[in-house]
Amino acid sequence: MISIKGVTKKYSADYFALKNVSLNIKAGEFVSLVGQSGTGKTTLVRLIIAEEKPTSGKIVIGGWDITDIKPRDIPYLRRQIGVVFQDFKLLPKRTVYENVAFALETCGTELSKIKQIVPQVLRIVGLDNKMDRYPYQLSGGEQQRVVIARSLVHKPKLLIADEPTGNLDSINTKEIIDLLLKINEIGTTILLVTHNREVVNNLRKRVITIDAGEIISDQERGRYTL
User: Fold this and answer.
1) What is the mean pLDDT of residues 68-75?
2) Residue 217 dihedral angles phi and psi, to the nearest 5°
3) Rounded distance, CA 207 to CA 31, Å?
4) HEC string of 145-178?
């Protein structure tokens, strides 16, 4: 699903965000990417979703070499990758249904398909009974569920969750991680970017540790060791 070979990202002559990073993530895996702030995690995510290009090296997503992806092709790549951030970025004046539908409307999806897809993804995240609520009427955990539902509308093969529990308490954190595990079980590859030690240790799945722009550990059933 993800193949990164010898990737370096340099922002200036003396600042390397990533240094010769290589990793492979198979389809259907659940992988945690951990590291302290400023170690290169976010830069790696930006490269995977083609928000930035590597200084050198090669990036292949789902068999598609995106190393030198053309701007016109980026929207097609993004439809294959669901992304969930710490910041919910919901539209405050739109309902849950409308927030999810918006991701399809911007791609020109037919109304009949929108009416079919939105209830499906809201059912997956357990919000099919709150589709008429507004973001301010939801808890933090429920708002993040809307974001996850929105990321699923194109049936992505890869879901990147970048600090999805950063603003949540322990109960909502567990619910979001359980939801990601559920999505993984139906075949979606999950890349969880986090610095939450408890979450990573409880998952007992593959853990890739990055420090100072380099991968220093890759454990099949790993723990947060920093």
Assistant:
1) 93
2) -160, 145
3) 6
4) HHHHHHHCCCCCCEEEEECCCCCCCHHHHHHHHH
Do the Cβ atoms of 157 and 27 come closer than 8 Å? yes
Ordered by where they begin, the domains of the chain are 2-219 (3.40.50.300)
112: enclosing H helix or E strand: helix 111-124
pTM for the whole thing? 0.93
Contact assessment for residue 39 and residue 210, using Cβ atoms and an 8 Å cutoff:
yes
pLDDT per residue over 48-69, tens digit each?
999 999 999 999 999 999 999 9
Residue 151 to residue 49: CA distance in whole angstroms: 13
Question: If you search the block for the tokens 């979450």, which residue do you land on?
Answer: 199
Q: Which of 87-91, 133-137, 147-151, 197-201 has the lowest mean pLDDT?
A: 87-91
Closest by CA position to 126, among listed 77, 172, 165: 172
